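[step 3/7] fold_predict: job queued, chain A
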Amino acid sequence: MPIPTGSRTAAFAPWTAVADDATGPGSAAGPANQARLTGLRALGHDLADTAYVADEAVVDADRLRLGDRSYLAAQTHVTGDVTIGADCSVNVFAAVRGRVRIGDGVRIGASTSILGFDHEFADPDVPVRLQGLRTRGITVEDDVWIGAQVVVLDGVRIGAHSVVGAGAVVTRDVPPYAVAVGNPARVVRDRRTGRAPEPATRARARALAEVLGATAARDVPVLLDRAWDATAEAFVDAAGVAPTVRAHCDAIELGDLVGLVPGRLTAQEHRERLRRAHRDGREPDDYHVLCVGHALDLLGDRLPREAYARWSSLTPTEVVARLDSLDWVEHAWHAGAVVDKLGTALTWALASDDPEGEAARETLLGWLLTHRDPGTGLWGSPRDPRESVNGTYRLVRGTVASWGIQLGGGDAVVDTVLRHVRAGALDAATACDALDVVHLLWWARPSARGYREAEVADVAELVLGLAVAAWTGDAGGLGAPFAPRGTEMTVISGADPTRPSLQGSEMWLALAWYAADLAGCADALGYTPRGIHRPD
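[step 4/7] structure written:
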């Protein structure tokens, strides 16, 4: 049955005029439409024989090209230099103006404006109407659906097979296969995958993570081989320094990242050395609670009770007295480090089913809950953000982060840490400075629930860039230094902190994981820390 194509019907429903079985005077082939096409061609326009232009359409273009089976519905307005491909529809009350290139199979909804020009208005002393026009043009590629009441502004390219939702204001390019909605329009998903696209920041972060992951996989085995002192039969943090237990633990942590047991020792020999390390008296015994316990854990062993008992055996009264005696105003960094050792000792007691530490653990949690600054979300005085940020990181890592306990207050933590970053915390940052920032942002994320998410992602990308630069910079040697050049400080190994070291390498690779996870691309690194900087 032929589709009815009376002049009014075709004008407002022109798909009836260009249908394959459309016949009659109101069809594209009908005399009225052919007369309009002839008249427009006489003005220099290029119109296919099967195109349709409603009588109520206003064509005031310098040049119009209209392809096969394409139509301009009633009350459409076309001006400027416009090319429209085959099988396109420009529906009622739509405007296509300026320099516009439209591919094949494009649907343009009612009352949509595609504006391939703009008014100049830079000079406030000259009326806008006298400042002239500029045009960059608009391109709409093939198989695009632009909904009703959309505005597409000059300079935009809309990629093939994409969809622009009704009422959107398109101010920037839309990639192929995208679904874009809103004012200004934003891409909400990819038609091929159904998933939201990866933001540009995340894409840059992923690229950095891929570089660092590949570099670590290549360099860490060589770095560990060079860190083995054959004479001492032990690991050194960097060339020219004595072997340390910390270096041994860092070597095991780094080896775990790339799936190897380092050095000339078997896993059992590593375990035996580390289990007796706290007895040698050459290094701070407290620190062994931190590094030795996690290294043994990676090797499938447990820290001996005698190594942590003096902490885990504290009574509740002793725990409170010890915490109250710490200087949380001027030296929150040191105070947090003490809590880190206490909390880690209690972690090993818990892992070993040692009931002695449970009372101390409950007391520590209660003290922390009642002494946290609700304004900053941290522990320590807000007068010195570096002290409180670093101290809070140490405290959190050794206690609630290891125990899987959420304390809330993520918004305050995010605000404080981002303020710390804006004040220059990551300018010439050491590995410790960068780790404090990304770990706390990561820890705060569950309770922050997307709060200032874009700013957090920017910081994550910045830190990934610092990690890549630290590893591939000009410090000399292989790996990453703890601190950038020009830093005046010492670290536990006694090595120059600005030279590549096991400590610096392990910390930068670990903190890069937190940054990458904040940016949604931790998988690109190819590793997850499982030792002292583990995320669970």
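[step 5/7] annotate
The radius of gyration is 34 Å.
Residues 1-5 have pLDDT under 50 and may be disordered.
exit 0
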